[in-house]
Design brief:
With 267 residues, the protein is an alpha+beta fold. Helices cover 57% and strands 19% of the residues. The chain has eleven helices and six strands.
Amino acid sequence: MPDCKTIDPLVTPYVDGELAETDRRNVDEHVHRCPPCHSRVAAERAVRALIRDHRPALESRSAPPALRARCAEAARSTDARLTAFAKAPAVRRSVFFNLAAWRARAVPFALAASLVVMVGGAFLYQLTDSSARVLAAELTADHMKCFAMNAMLGTHEQPSTVESAMVSGFGWQAHLPQDAARVGLELVGARPCLYGEGKIAHIMYRHEGRPVSVFMLPNAARAQQFVEVLGHEAAIWCVGNRTFVLVAREPRLEVVRLASYVQASLH
C-alpha cells in the first residue's frame, strides 16, 4: 500500500477530482486508514468549499491590513524559531531534523489554515460578529486544523493541565466534566485559537474516537442555535458573558446530546 510520502503530492488533485482512477483508489484506501492524511484531505476540502461558496465576496474585497500583518508576523516567528534550531549545537541537530520533518508534514495544514484566514478574511473578519454561520465556519476550520496537528504530534493532556491553561490564558475557572467517559468523551487537550474578534479557548475531545471541539469565546453573547456548515454541526449557546460552540461531524441529534451534556457539566 502507498505510504504518506507517496500520497502527499496526490492529495490536492484528489480533492480537485483530477486523479486517474487507480491513483484515486490508492488515495481512498490510504486516507481511510491514516488519520493525519484523512484530516489533511478534510482541511483541503473545507478550504476549497469555503473559497467556492464565497468567491464573489473574495473577488471584490481584500483582507484588512491588521489581519495581513498578524499573518505575516506569525510566519516570521515560525521561520525565526526554525532558523534558531538550525544553528543549534550538534547535540541538538537531531531535534532540528525531527522538527524539519514535522514541518514538511505540517505545511499543508498551515497553508490550508492560512487560506482560510487570509483569503477568507475578506468576509470572516467582518462578519463573525453578526453571522452565526460564518462564525461556525471559521471555528470548524480551526477544529479540523487543530485535530490534524494533534494526530501528528500525539499530544494528550490531563484535565488539571487544561483547567490551569484556561485560568492563565483566559481568567476562566473552568471545571471540566469529571465523568466524560460516561457519554463516550475522552479529553485530548486544549489550545488558544484566533478568530475574527480575538483569542478564544479551544478544548479538544474525542467522542468514541471522533473529533469534538468545544470553543469558548470570552466577552461575547450569542443566541442559542444549531448551524450545519462544512459537513459539521455546530451547537452555539451563551453562559454569562461567554459564548460556547461545540463542533463535531456527528448527526444533529448526537450533537444536541453532547452539547446538552457539556453545557450542564462545563462551568
